[in-house]
Design a protein that fits this description.
By secondary structure, the protein is α/β, with parallel strands linked by helices. The protein has ten helices and eight strands. A four-stranded parallel β-sheet has the order 2-1-3-4, sandwiched between helices. The protein has a four-stranded parallel β-sheet with strand order 6-5-7-8, with helices on both faces. α7 (138-150) links the parallel β5 and β6 (154-160). α3 runs parallel beside α5 and α6 packs across α10 (220-230). The longest helix is centred in the middle third of the chain and has 16 residues, at 92-107. The chain is globular, with a radius of gyration of 18 Å.
């Protein structure tokens, strides 16, 4: 059978993604990716350490990054993304910049990290006071606040779960509850809400929270993909998400405003933790 009329696979441009060994949300990353882009993922080597500042340091060592980038070179990505929030903020702003330099040096293409993309997204939204939601322990959450403080971003409210493992099992409903509690505890106004950790599912909860809280809601996986795709001159795919669609931002007037999505998908119960 002659199938020449089908042509061939369309040329793909690639984003190389370095993720920690315990990352399980590959499918979520793909949801932000337009059809003409491919993701090429690799993981850092396994280490028997729970989610902590020690783990963040281990999965972000320059030698580890270099090995991961070398594993991606055969796929010839046009941009590299390090998809881990804690691993990219644990060394502060200087450490994040050094990580990008190390990846670019090894891969010879532009590089971004989740925490660097976070600051880029906050600048895009003009957000200087934020509410923060994390699945982490207090020590890891505090380290993120210190990183944001270096960039003159104030964390005016927060909620965290205190988890050290199985973060990907937290359901959307618990993420939404954390966001509501953080907003309720705020002192003064906030410009946006950030949901941290690339292992925390967020894609479907973002538009629901934006409609409910009336403010931009951004997440770790979202800003990582958004930033990497910008460097390719293309846009992430995210209906009703203010970072990706400027007409969804507060005060914007969309040409044909759709109704916001209703309800949150169910998921497995979260483990451990408490509120602050």
């Amino acid at each position: 059978m002659d199938v020449s009329f089908l042509g061939g696979p369309h040329p793909q441009r690639g984003v190389g993604v370095v993720a920690p060994f315990d990352f399980v949300l590959d499918r979520e990353l793909w949801r932000w990716i337009p059809d003409e882009i491919s993701l090429h993922l690799t993981r850092t080597p396994y280490v028997p350490v729970e989610v902590s500042l020690d783990l963040a340091r281990l999965v972000s060592e320059h030698e580890t990054l270099a090995e991961a980038v070398r594993a991606l070179t055969a796929a010839e990505p046009e941009v590299l993304a390090y998809a881990c929030t804690s691993g990219s903020f644990v060394g502060g702003i200087a450490g994040e910049r050094a990580m990008c330099e190390a990846m670019t040096r090894e891969g010879a293409v532009a590089s971004v990290t989740t925490s660097g993309a976070l600051l880029e997204a906050l600048d895009e939204l003009g957000a200087r006071r934020i509410a923060l939601v994390t699945p982490y322990t207090w020590s890891v959450t505090q380290s993120l606040e210190e990183y944001l403080g270096e960039a003159d971003v104030t964390v005016a409210a927060r909620a965290y779960l205190g988890l050290t493992r199985h973060i990907w099992k937290v359901p959307y409903r618990d993420v939404a509850d954390m966001a509501r509690r953080a907003i309720q505890s705020r002192a003064g106004g906030v410009d946006a809400l950030f949901i941290s950790c690339t292992n925390l599912p967020t894609y479907d909860v973002i538009p629901q929270l934006e409609a409910e809280l009336r403010m931009p809601v951004i997440s770790a996986n979202q800003v990582t993909m958004w930033s990497a795709l910008r460097r390719l001159g293309t846009r992430a795919v995210g209906p009703y998400q203010a970072l990706i669609n400027p007409t969804a931002r507060p005060g914007a007037i969309p040409l044909d405003p759709p109704a916001p999505p209703q309800g949150l998908p169910e998921g497995p119960p979260a483990e451990g933790g408490g509120w602050t």
